[in-house]
Write a structure and sequence with these properties.
The structure is a homodimer. The first copy, chain A, is elongated. In chain A, β14 and β15 form a beta hairpin. In chain A, α4 runs antiparallel to α6 and α7 packs across α8. Chain A folds into two domains: 104 residues, Beta Barrel (OB fold (Dihydrolipoamide Acetyltransferase, E2P)); 307 residues, Bira Bifunctional Protein, Domain 2 (BirA Bifunctional Protein, domain 2). The two termini of chain A are 29 Å apart. The first copy, chain A, is an alpha+beta fold. Helices cover 31% and strands 25% of the residues of chain A. Chains A and B meet through β1, α3, α4, β6 and β7 of A and β1, α3, α4, β6 and β7 of B.
């Protein structure tokens, strides 16, 4: 690994990676070699362009010089040489004097991605785009973040489940549903694991978690929507209200951000200019109605006919919270029942409101959580009230007919979290392979 | 948690769970209460069936007695009472004298799953089936196994990726492909993350892993096939051959089985009668042709026209290996090119064979691994040779045109691993919600 070179003593080494840059000067050649861990400068001091009968090493030096001259960006090579520490070398303070160079796979010379290529060109050539160190860092961050979350769940004794993505009916609503030809019938792609993670509660699993794909046939082209995304889901039993879900949520977020900051904080600052902050607990909590009053008092009236917030309102309440409490996170709570799904539990004292919340991170919603209605009569009535057909939901409603504990949970979009953590302009930048209405390739 | 009761001193406690059994005797009532951690006996010594003006606690005892009489299997309750240690109680050596009982959600009395219900009835009512302690154990084992694997990857610096399940074209073959209506066009569900995990190699990610769903429109009804299953995938760069992949594979398996044995070994023995063995490294390795000779010498000629093994042959070579080397695992290596996908690398000295392997566990194949062909000219020629259209594969072939290191990896079916580890008869028993040609519900 290239990152380990600086700690090694001078002497023979062998490294592999791809060519990031070649400086082919008259008397010396430099190659910047990169692997997933970093970059190092290679030096060929023995440049010889033409055979020289006076030079006993002519047979070695001429082909080596030519090989380096012909190296294209992205070509994968393996190099043997002498490691030398040299303070004047900016790149890590070491360089390698090339003895032998082996071309493993030659790259085509016409790199289709330029420094100033737009996002669509970069996505067309995502595998080249991902070679950039800052893109690689995104997925290191993702790895660390998810592992930290899973450690919290494991420590709490939660069970990891894999719910099916093929369903016989809609998971939440008929809208934005992908249909699949399923033998002689039709299946649908799960929009969320909602029903199936609640099944685990009826099954007595207690706490569960899942990190997996979710699908929405959403025709929009915003910076925060995709037709396929990674959903982080958890659900737990024997809660008193959504406040218990929010506590778990905080614990997960703090563990995830802290792990990322510890492991990648410096790199994030260097590549993205972001000084990551581990949030303090508890996160500020504001009932939605109050949040709307706050942004109204500050001059913004949410232009919606329904009771919901809009993205601009979320940005403004987040700015308010950041200024007042110094927090990048804020829970908006007590959403109106009219804008929540039928399975959210209503307030015991005010059935117009739900035991639910959204989590806002740096001004954008990343998650919805709630206590679920577990009383079958109430649940069924709420489904009918929302215009749903209980017959079609019967497989789900059955979960509640044979006993289920009070429970709740949340779903959170991984790509949104990464986008907001690294302050990127679009989830396209932080998704391994983005999927949208016009994009199924590569 | 019920499992924590035994370690507590006698005194007041509060527990929640579901009713597993009620013994409603004339002068005493017993309830077995279960949660995800275990079961405990509740006792009502104050049985009073009719109001008794002489008994000052009549108003409390009569309704309590009636509540317990009416408890149905699966009803979720919360109980306050006195914990008492009592060696004569088989269930954990403790019982709880009930003070107060709260019915949280009443279950319908007609439990549709009986002790002797067949697998189809149990799958229809999977959430009830999953309440059985041995079913719950399956998913505890799954959780521990996956976490142990991820820890190995994390320790090795591997990157976790989430590859898209929606694709513009087939991932491996046109056969067994699910079609999705995708806006005005068609998408396909990924049969494996094969192409996308190889993309990470071209992107310079080094080592990567993914645990996620894969989809096969396979109309068969065997005990080891599903239309949707969880695939464990990994891929790594700069290998010398498939032997490097096999080493990683061994390391992962050993870590996974060791963690499961340590954490759940006793429970597995109790519920499944299986004494789990942590395999010794290296696993036995037998070239496929030799394996066929061995089973032939032992009296079984594989009845296939092609060069492949069949399930019976796999069972026999596994029995041979178990007897000769004491190993539950065996690598069959060097598969014939005719029965391997176009992207498997061929032997340098014998292009009829591939740098590939299958991993057999207790007689059944759980995984295929290989070194991948990374030389574009060779890869393209092999695709054409297999009758594939390079134009349709262009997005994939492009990965190799701009440089890629030598690499390899494997895909492994999680459900098969669990089935074989716990010696279950079908993956239906170890899949949270099985999906087959006739099964999309619940």
């Amino acid at each position: 690994m290239i990152k380990d070179l600086a700690a090694r003593a001078d002497g023979p080494v062998r490294v592999s990676g791809w060519v990031e840059k070649v400086r082919d000067q008259r008397y010396v050649q430099f190659v910047v070699l990169r692997d997933e861990s970093g970059a190092v400068q290679l030096v060929n001091g023995g440049v010889l362009r033409e055979p020289d009968p006076e030079n006993p090493r002519s047979d070695i030096l001429v082909p080596r010089t030519q090989t380096i001259s012909e190296l294209t960006h992205g070509t994968f090579i393996t190099v043997s040489g002498e490691l030398q520490h040299n303070e004047r070398v900016k790149l890590g303070g070491v360089e390698i004097q090339i003895d032998e160079i082996e071309v493993v796979t030659r790259a085509l010379p016409d790199n289709p991605v330029a420094e100033d290529s737009g996002i669509d060109v970069r996505l067309d050539w995502r595998f080249l785009d991902l070679r950039r160190p800052e893109q690689h860092l995104v997925f290191q961050v993702q790895t660390t973040f998810l592992h930290a979350l899973r450690q919290v769940w494991i420590d709490r004794g939660f069970i990891e489940i894999q719910t099916p993505k093929l369903m016989a009916s809609a998971s939440e609503s008929r809208a934005e549903l992908f249909e699949v030809d399923y033998f002689d019938g039709t299946a649908f792609l799960a929009q969320s694991p909602q029903f199936f993670k609640q099944m685990a509660q009826a099954a007595g699993f207690g706490g569960i978690f899942e990190v997996g794909p979710a699908f929405r046939a959403d025709p929009s082209f915003t910076s925060r929507h995709a037709t396929e995304f990674t959903s982080i889901d958890t659900e737990l039993s024997w809660i008193d209200s959504h406040l218990d879900v929010m506590e778990l949520h905080e614990e997960l977020i703090v563990a995830g951000v802290a792990a990322v900051k510890e492991r990648h904080g410096e790199e994030i600052l260097k590549h993205f200019g972001v000084e990551l902050e581990v949030p303090a607990r508890p996160f500020p909590r504001i009932p939605l109605a109050e949040a709307k009053e706050i942004v109204k008092a500050e001059g913004y009236e949410v232009p919606r006919a329904d009771a919901d917030m809009d993205p601009e309102g979320e940005r403004r309440i987040a700015a308010h919270v950041k200024q007042k409490y110094g927090s990048d996170f804020v829970f908006l709570t007590d959403y109106d029942a009219s804008i929540r799904p039928f399975y959210h539990m209503r307030h015991p004292e005010n059935p117009q409101l739900t035991n639910s919340y959204d989590l806002i991170y740096n001004g954008t919603e990343i998650s919805t959580g709630a206590q679920r209605e577990h009383r079958i009569e109430v649940l069924e009535a709420q489904a009918v009230e929302k215009g749903m057909d209980p017959a079609e939901l019967s497989f789900y409603l059955d979960f509640f007919r044979y006993g289920v504990p009070p429970h709740g949970g949340f779903g959170m979009g991984l790509n949104r979290v990464l986008m907001l953590m690294l302050q990127q302009s679009s989830i396209r930048e932080v998704t391994y392979l983005f999927r949208g209405p016009n994009r199924l390739l590569p």
